[in-house]
Write a structure and sequence with these properties.
Its EC number is 1.1.1.1. It is found in: Cytoplasm. Belongs to the zinc-containing alcohol dehydrogenase family. By secondary structure, the protein is α/β, with parallel strands linked by helices. It starts with a strand and ends with a strand. The model has no long low-confidence stretch (mean pLDDT 98). It binds nicotinamide-adenine-dinucleotide and zinc ion.
């Protein structure tokens, strides 16, 4: 019942992952063991691997953007069975709590993101080990492994026809960015939207703005190589803050007659978060924070910016409820109403997983899909 399989283990901060043989314990009550087919790299994995601005927790199996198939289920699991196709999600949906019952929130009391916990909720233990020594989990998903164990509420059951090498990126980045725009900022048709950070998440936010009918989509990134690619996602204008001596808020205010209607921050840099907020027009502007900040970062702005009737919001997973909403996003892709291919810039074998980190560090990739079943 214990499975021996390969996993990419992060042994220490910033050290290349090592493919190891790990033991994966059977799923306990309300848990599910999943065979991962494809996983992709999101910047959040990279932060916790670098552990520069985040709590270090090692050895750990990272990974949270993925797709796979249920191998076995633990006691009490009735919603899923062996053979079901699933997307694991870092912020789950128990279906029972006040948040799950609220139309507004996806911040499940039981299964909301917890980056510092490296064990299962039920018994405080890990399901991964090497020679009896436990290896920590990551955000309840740990998808850099041939098999993983998650809480049943962290798995969205999707259409089995879906190609898993594509829909795996709906398990975090693309849904997060699109939802940040469509569910949280909710831009009106014809409005102006600024997107800070044009990686996978930011370009998904741009895609959301395009779908909502925004007339101007201004992309801001320190990496000008992003601009060519961003045109495919409806970005109409570009600003590289490094090209200007004055604050980028002023540059944007000049270009937009006082500020943008909406801005979405997808960088993880607190300075960019403040810039995104202060770039909004007074009277109606709405800013949405998506980037994961350093754990000690502090957002500092004059309260007058709020008095002047700007709104600041934030979101995990674009406010989508994973189990309720992800199957529909997969259908949108299958109906060709949502293009995922353009986000996938690289594909590597599981053995080459460290290359995915290199591409992201160099700013070359949007999403790099890692083929776990093909080895
Ligand atoms: P990425 O590395 O692909 O893209 C980030 C982009 O931001 C890069 O192009 C980079 O050049 C740019 N950037 C960095 N600092 C900047 C600055 N000061 N000004 C302008 N541009 C800047 O990363 P990604 O995978 O797209 O993730 C983006 C952010 O979203 C990360 O912080 C990640 O942790 C976060 N994230 C949040 C959620 C959520 O639910 N809230 C989900 C997924 C990812
Ligand atoms: Zn992510």
């Amino acid at each position: 019942r214990v499975i021996k399989c390969k996993a990419a283990v992060a042994w220490a901060a910033g050290e290349p992952l090592k493919i190891e043989e790990v033991e994966v314990a059977p799923p306990q009550a309300m848990e599910v063991r999943v065979k991962i087919h494809y996983t992709a790299l999101c910047h959040t994995d990279l932060y916790f691997w670098e552990a520069k601005g985040q709590t270090p927790l090692f050895p750990r199996i990272l990974g949270h953007e993925a797709a796979g198939v249920v191998e076995s289920v633990g006691e009490g699991v009735t919603d899923l069975k062996e053979g079901d196709t699933v997307l694991p999600v870092f912020t789950g949906e128990c279906g029972e709590c006040r948040h799950c019952k609220s139309e507004e929130s996806n911040m499940c009391d039981l299964l909301r993101i917890n980056t510092d916990r490296g064990v299962m909720i039920s018994d405080g233990k890990s399901r991964f080990s090497i020679n009896g020594k436990p290896i920590y989990h990551f955000v309840g998903t740990s998808t850099f492994s041939e098999y993983t164990v998650t809480h049943v509420g962290s798995l969205a059951k999707i259409n089995p026809e879906a190609p898993l090498d594509k829909v795996c990126i709906l398990s975090c980045g693309v849904s997060t960015g699109m939802g940040a725009t469509l569910n949280v900022a909710k831009p009106k048709k014809g409005s102006s939207v600024a997107i800070f950070g044009l990686g996978g998440v930011g370009l998904a936010a741009a895609e959301g703005a395009r779908i909502a009918g925004a007339s101007r989509i201004i992309g801001i990134d320190l990496n000008s190589d992003r601009f060519e690619k961003a045109k495919l996602f409806g970005v109409t204008e570009f600003i590289n803050p490094l090209d200007y001596k004055k604050p980028i808020q002023e540059v944007i205010a000049e270009k937009t007659d006082g500020g943008v209607d909406y801005s979405i921050e997808c960088t993880g840099n607190v300075k960019a978060m403040i810039q995104a907020f202060e770039s909004c027009h007074d009277g109606w502007g709405v800013a949405v924070l998506v980037g994961v900040p350093h754990s000690d970062a502090v957002f500092a702005t004059s309260p007058v910016n709020f008095l002047n009737e700007r709104t600041l919001k934030g979101t995990f997973f674009g406010n989508y409820k994973p189990r309720t909403d992800l199957p529909g996003l997969v259908e949108l892709y299958l109906d060709k109403k949502l293009e995922l291919e353009k986000f996938i810039t690289h594909e590597v074998s599981f053995a080459d997983i460290n290359k995915a980190f290199d591409y992201m560090i160099k700013g070359e990739s949007l999403r790099c899909v890692i083929n776990v079943i093909g080895n």
